[in-house]
Amino acid sequence: MNYFYPSDQQALFTNRRQELATLDHYYQSLIDGTVEHVALFGLRRIGKTLLLKEFMRRLRMTNSAVQPAFLDFSVICSSPENFTLGFIGSICYWLLEEGNSDPEPFLNPATLGSAVLRAGGEKLFDEIQPILQELQRARPDRQALLRQAFRFPRQAATTLDKKLVLICDEFQEIRTLENYPNSQNVVALLRAELQSQSAVQYILAGSAISVLAGLLSNPDSPLFAQFTRISIEPFDRESTQELANKLLSEPLEADLYPLLHSLTWGHPFYITAVARRMSYLLDVVQRPLSSDVVKQAFLVETLSPGGRIYDFCQYVYDLSLQKAKGYGALKSVLQILAQEEGLSASEVARQLRVTSGSASDYLRWLCEVDLVVEKEKAYYFRDQVLRFWVGNVIKGIEISLTAEPMDLKGLINRLDHQFQRVAEELGDAQESLVRELMRHFKGQTVHEEVFHTQREVTLPVFQEVKADISPDGQIELDAIGEGQERWVVEVKWRNKRTGSKELEKLLMHAKERKARAWFVSRSGFSADAIKYAIENEILITDKYGLEILRKQIL
Known about the structure:
This protein is an alpha/beta fold. The chain contains 25 helices and 14 strands. Helix 23 links the parallel strand 12 and strand 13.
């Protein structure tokens, strides 16, 4: 797999132990003959593809009877004909070359057949001939091509007496195939094949969270309830430190890693960009590493044209708005949310001077392209770094790649105001912290004041901790822990005490899932909420209890 997954990428792979264990668990279903298909959700550049490459590497090392194949749907979905060629060609490539050479001969209709034969795939050659013949026609039957393409993995597995794991990256691009004449119901054709075989497992991944969620979770979709969903989250502080140390020529002072984590929000791409910029400042400019240098590296990468984060944010911003409607109005909505998050549709409407209905449409379109997320009728940027970029670059604030710290003093002050406050006070950061804490539960006994109970609580071991995401891509519960016990968790990080009605809602979720309920509230709980929690055995924790818990187990 060295061509596909070179050693320098392997060296940068960090943590993801939980995600790998989850993939291994579902992969076992293929071995057992009861196939469970899996879908990975996560922001762009969060590390989904690298995770899948690492999973493939480990799979090839442990089981020769199972062959993984990687298919990039963003490349092969340009037309039904190209999809068919790319789909079967990629599978042949992986079955015969296993990622060790240039795949190009397998992706060209003129050379696919000869490439298969040169690689010793005589049996596969017979299987692909009808498809190649159809592709050579002046007007190929697109429905027939797609049906043959989806049938091919099963045929190949039978022919070679192997089981296949098909990893389909950017799977949501399959929808583009239905824009062509005579290629309708593409997803339904795939569904029909999924239900008729037991030797092929599909692992889907996509960065268009809302689109992919709709394909897999909408009751009207042919793929409804066919896939188990796995959310790929940003790194915790420990993994942020691990990745940064792989990129820096010397480690940071211990107190600088939390700063790096808060600025990047644990996003691996942002961590990588900032760490490489810090290495430049350390090795070339010979500037000693300090908090100001970490901030300088972040600002240069984010606000300088040519910076890695700048270019990435520009790409995401332009691409997402191109896919949405009402380009000009949407830019205005994003600028409003960049200045103040957590606004309702009516508050956005007031600032835009439009009707609430129009504002709701704009916000819905932004949610559909994953720039914005709705939570409890309030709207937030999905990506806080992108929020910072929008709030500055769109207003014309840019800096030079060679900017000095003195030139950045005002921006550093603004950075401190936005990121440090957000990292320490706002819910998204605390939700991530709570999930991180739960992953460190190892049977410790904690004092009753942490959970407002009458006795000490023994913390269970969780095999999996994740946010609960609804079919429309929104977060329903901030954390679910699965293991020795099942816990459901809600986090409210605001200047308002939590009342009993919110506890009632959480308890309902807990009963539905036969789980224990835990509510974390920054400002504590009202008297009636505390009474309700005691009566119903709900664990409740305020910010002081959370800090006690963090100090004890981290």
